[in-house]
């Protein structure tokens, strides 16, 4: 799933390639991708893109005097930029193509989604906060005003484990499965530790890990073409998706805890005092 750093990089890429250009056609291929119908997606046709914004993991194309075209790429979605779109309209079928946006220059982008769980979403709205997911977002962790005091206030009465708290978009916007693993590894904390149990010193450590991990990932992604962002993300991850590899910090073997539809990775030496974490489904959680 694209998370804050990749969506921020896509925002920068689209700012460079979209702003100042006119959208001449929006071509839905999979009707399931459209989450709003009034105004229709054609409402952005004939309008110039004047800005591109990021709200958590949402991308927002603002048009001149018109609605916002907002998309969430979900777990398996992606944006593919094309300097020259194929001639003719795309054909509906069983492929991954969900929607195409064409510019007056002949360039544009495709939104695609792999797999069978169709969660890729497109909204055309007068105000981005009309999108329920945006309206519920917590603070952006890279926002200028998001300081350590603000972070501590969020966690003060949070009874969930750190892994779940960091991934909750209503608590903190933009962090998903991969970067929550990376942040907790950088902070040397168990993903099962209760957020409300943190000492002030631990809260400060986690705050620094949050900001530094995301800032470094944004810098790695900045200037990378849209088509290469996925591989760039993977190359920069220390523990997530690296079960069985050696921890780059201590050399211990990276372990995994699996859930019904996802998994987490961690280093026992760095994060849990050398003890492997029990499978959460068996209700044997090691703090």
Structure description:
It is a single chain. This protein has 287 residues and is of the alpha+beta class. Helices cover 27% and strands 21% of the residues. Mean pLDDT is 93; it is low at 282-287. The strands form 2 sheets. The chain has an 8-stranded antiparallel beta sheet. It starts with a helix and ends in a 16-residue tail after the last helix.
Summarize it.
The chain is α+β, with helices and mostly antiparallel strands. The protein contains 8 helices and 10 strands.
Write the layout of secondary structure elements.
Layout lengths: L3 H15 L3 E7 L18 E9 L2 E6 L4 E5 L4 E6 L14 E7 L4 E6 L7 E5 L6 H4 L12 H8 L6 H6 L9 H11 L12 H22 L7 H8 L18 E4 L4 E4 L1 H4 L16
Antiparallel strand pairs: 1-2, 1-6, 2-3, 3-4, 4-8, 5-7, 6-7, 9-10
Helix pairs in contact: 1-6, 3-6, 5-6
Structural class by secondary-structure content: alpha+beta
Major β-sheet profile: 8 strands, antiparallel
Task: Let me know the number of strands.
Answer: 10
Q: Which percent bin holds the helix content?
A: 25-40%
The fraction of residues in strands falls at 15-25%
Low confidence ranges:
282-287
* Mean pLDDT over all positions: 93
CA(first)-CA(last) distance: 27 Å
**What Rg, in angstroms, do the CA atoms define?**
20 Å
Spell out the helices and strands N to C: HEEEEEEEEHHHHHHEEH
Shape: elongated
């Amino acid at each position: 799933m694209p998370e804050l750093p990749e969506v921020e990089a896509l925002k920068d890429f689209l700012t460079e390639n979209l702003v100042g250009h006119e959208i001449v056609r929006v071509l839905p291929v999979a009707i399931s991708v459209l989450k709003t119908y009034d105004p229709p997606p054609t409402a952005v046709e004939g309008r110039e893109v004047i800005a591109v914004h990021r709200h958590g993991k949402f991308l927002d194309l603002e048009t001149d005097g018109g609605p916002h075209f907002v998309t969430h790429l979900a777990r398996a979605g992606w944006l593919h930029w094309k300097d020259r779109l194929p001639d003719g309209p795309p054909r509906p079928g069983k492929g991954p193509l969900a929607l195409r946006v064409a510019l007056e220059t002949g360039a544009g982008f495709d939104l695609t989604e792999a797999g069978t769980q169709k969660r890729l979403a497109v909204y055309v709205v007068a105000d981005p906060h009309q999108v329920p997911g945006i309206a519920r977002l917590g603070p952006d962790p890279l926002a200028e005003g998001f300081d350590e005091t603000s972070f501590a206030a969020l966690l003060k009465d949070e009874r969930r484990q750190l892994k779940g708290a960091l991934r909750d978009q209503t608590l903190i916007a933009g962090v998903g499965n991969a970067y929550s693993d990376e942040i907790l590894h950088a902070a040397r904390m168990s993903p099962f530790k209760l957020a409300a149990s943190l000492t002030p010193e631990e809260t400060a450590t986690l705050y620094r890990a949050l900001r530094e991990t995301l800032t470094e990932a944004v810098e790695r992604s900045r200037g990378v073409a849209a088509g290469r962002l996925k591989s760039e993300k993977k190359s920069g991850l220390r523990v997530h998706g690296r079960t069985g590899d050696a921890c780059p910090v201590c050399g211990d073997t990276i372990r995994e805890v699996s859930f019904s539809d996802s998994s987490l990775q961690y280093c026992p030496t760095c994060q849990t005092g050398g003890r492997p974490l029990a499978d959460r489904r068996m209700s044997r959680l090691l703090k």
